[in-house]
Design a protein that fits this description.
The protein is mostly beta strands. It contains one helix and 14 strands, in the order αββββββββββββββ. The strands form three sheets. Strands 1, 4, 5, 6, 7, 8, 9, 10, 13 and 14 form a ten-stranded antiparallel sheet that branches. A two-stranded antiparallel sheet has the order 2-3. A two-stranded antiparallel sheet has the order 11-12. The two termini are 25 Å apart.
Length: 234
């Protein structure tokens, strides 16, 4: 039961990779715990996010149309997952297909809403070291986000990003005490170019948009209340 719960937690976490995300992939408690092989899962999830702050050059901007900006994103996510072994090492792969909408509001309400297929994600993780008896795990994951989502250079906001993204992540978890585990993870995301940026790239002429790689580090304790519930910080 615990391994199923941990895998479902991991799947729910990975579903949070959404349009407009410029950060890397965050982990939740026990995401580094290796799943049991030979399992297949189909999951449908829903996510709602709202952004009401505009940043320019690292600072909050409230001038002009950004005085009261609202961007609401609603996404339904279908994912198929399989767990298996590679040379006796635990591994998991999934294919994720999102469908959703991006709705500008507030001072951005004059811009059109976009609804459609999102960017499809393919991911695989493998655990070079997994010792369930000592609760010690080392995992490596790779992600590929494809430009399959709805996109138009004439819309400032689109469900898709019209670019490839890749991410490489490594995580380590081991017990600190009988009931507390420690987890640390580091990942880097690389962004492909978007050669069709117009409405979102003033002065609204077709141009190429690029982004530098981003590296994120995470560390935090995990308190195991019992076999069902855990509490974590990051």
């Amino acid at each position: 039961m615990r391994n199923v719960r941990q895998l479902l937690t991991r799947l729910l976490l990975l579903a949070t990779l959404q349009p407009f995300a410029v950060s890397a992939i965050d982990l939740q408690p026990n995401d580094v715990v290796a799943p049991l092989p030979g399992k297949n899962y189909l999951m449908l999830s829903y996510l709602n996010t709202e952004n009401n702050t505009f940043y320019k050059n690292g600072s909050i901007s409230s001038a002009g149309p950004y005085k009261n900006p609202v961007i609401e994103v609603n996404t339904a996510i279908l994912r198929g997952t399989t767990t298996y072994s590679i040379a006796d090492l635990p591994a998991v792969s999934y294919l994720q297909v999102p469908y959703g909408s991006v709705k500008p509001g507030g001072s951005l309400s004059s811009y059109p809403t976009d609804t459609g297929l999102g960017d499809i994600t393919i991911a695989t993780a493998i655990w070079p070291y997994a010792d369930r008896a000592s609760r010690t795990y080392l995992g490596v994951a790779g992600y590929l986000i494809t430009p399959t989502g709805s996109y138009s250079s004439q819309r400032p906001f689109s469900v898709g990003e019209n670019r490839f993204k890749t991410d490489l992540q490594i995580g380590f978890q081991k017990p600190i005490t009988d009931s507390i585990d420690g987890m640390v993870a580091v990942d880097t995301m690389w962004y492909g170019g978007n050669s069709q940026c117009s409405a979102a790239c003033p002065p609204a002429t077709m141009t190429s948009l690029s982004q530098k790689p981003l590296t994120t580090a995470q560390i935090g304790p995990i308190y195991n209340i019992n076999r069902i519930f855990t509490v974590g910080a990051s």
